[in-house]
Amino acid sequence: MNFPAGFRWGVATSAYQIEGAASTDGRGPSIWDTFAAVPGAVASGDTGAVAADHYHRWSEDVGLLVDLGVDAYRFSISWSRVLPEGRGRVERRGLDFYRRLAEALLAKGIEPFVTLYHWDLPQALEDEGGWRNRDTAGWFADYSATVHEALSDVVTKWTTLNEPYCSAVVGYGEGRHAPGAREGHGALAAAHHLLLGHGLAVQAMRAGGAAGQEFGIVLNQSPTVPVTGSPADAAAAVRQDVLLRRQFTDPLFGGAYPDEMTSMFGDITDFSFRHDGDLAVIGQPLDYVGLNYYYRLHVADAPHREPDPAKRTAHDIGVDTTRLPDVPRTGMGWPVEPAGLTTALTDLKARHPELPPVYVTENGCVYPDNENFEDTDRIAFLKDHIAAALTAADEVDLRGYFCWSLLDNFEWAHGYKHRFGLIHVDYATQRRTPRASYHWYRSFISSARAEER
Ligand code: IFM
User: Fold this and answer.
1) pTM higher than 0.70 for the full model?
2) Residue 305 above 90 pLDDT?
3) In angstroms, what CA-CA distances link 381 with 190, 223, 403?
4) Which residue(s) pair with 67 in the sheet?
5) Which residue among 91, 323, 415, 425 is buried most deeply as judged by most CB within 10 Å?
6) Does any ligand 1 atom lie closer than 6 A to the CB of residue 163?
7) pLDDT per residue over 366-402, tens digit each?
8) From the CA of 451, how far away is ligand 1's center (Å)?
9) Domain ranges in the chain?
10) Is the beta carbon of 362 within 6 A of some atom in ligand 1?
11) Distance from the CA of 411 to the center of ligand 1, in angstroms?
């Protein structure tokens, strides 16, 4: 495989999923601390209180990154470590942790790619309405500017949000994620305020004037495939696509929300959360976009779950996504379809020809371990998906690939059951054991670098 010169190879993690140390050094509670404490919310009652204890073991983890040979590491900042109440008082020890990490990475030639929000809103802000509250967008910009001002000498790649679809629709619509709300209007307002917060944060960080800074956003992009050629299934696929992809990409890169949102959601919201001028803020020019890909969505038309249109939650759009094709599945049950990564990339570019450079910021899988951690399925998965990403590189300005994830970690509502890591973590001892996929990725990166075009 011939990769473009300067192609970046990395791995990704997020704060709540690996850090632990939930009340260390003044960190305030986040919505995930609260949600994980609700009986039944997370499998086996797992929480991120200890996770992979990365907060204490970060130096060992940097060593593992160095041995892996990556030149980029994507991690997220815990908002409530830096601003325990979400706004106002800054916790210096939180900022210092991220400075130590960034400096250690730079010293080893690994570039930090920072994400400012990976789903862990400070609980104090949720108590004021969370992302349903327009003020949260402004507080996010203030927080972003605080972190940026403190770290712009050691970080130049700044991602505002990770997968705002999940924060808004899974968190405030389905209720499978924190804060566990099941709403229509609230979830759509949350999506809009996340986007507004993104735009305000980019403006605030750019206003800091530091040189050489790059700003982007990370979006999950599951291409939608109708299960039959029927017009009803085709229409269901459009609805699914509007909910998951175009609700975010159209305003970010096209200056408008999809028209279809009016017919899809007119019964549950009057869209009064959209104010004049918001789209201009949301559509800030970006330096890059990150794309996360795991699977395609196979969609059939279906009855709504809630018959009363006014009571529907935001994800109740009359689609069935359970009719999977006859292809292998990962340990999460997700269909393995590498070609979906090619189309995720090319679809986005086709819709938005002026798209900024793109990184694949997450891609990975879960499979059961054998006792030698030989994980041949994960290696095959990664190999095929990297090849699929490269297929899109003729059309898309593709700059890098980040595997999810460096370490086994807290997989949200699934707790610790599913293991995405290139490195196995024994949670009882916190012992790290690189899997065969870790060694494979290291040699793959090294040969890919040798063959750059
Ligand atoms: O673990 C998550 C990550 O936090 C966001 N993207 C998908 C991953 C796998 O489910």
Assistant:
1) yes
2) yes
3) 34, 18, 11
4) none
5) 425
6) yes
7) 999 999 999 999 999 999 999 999 999 999 999 999 9
8) 30
9) 8-450
10) yes
11) 7
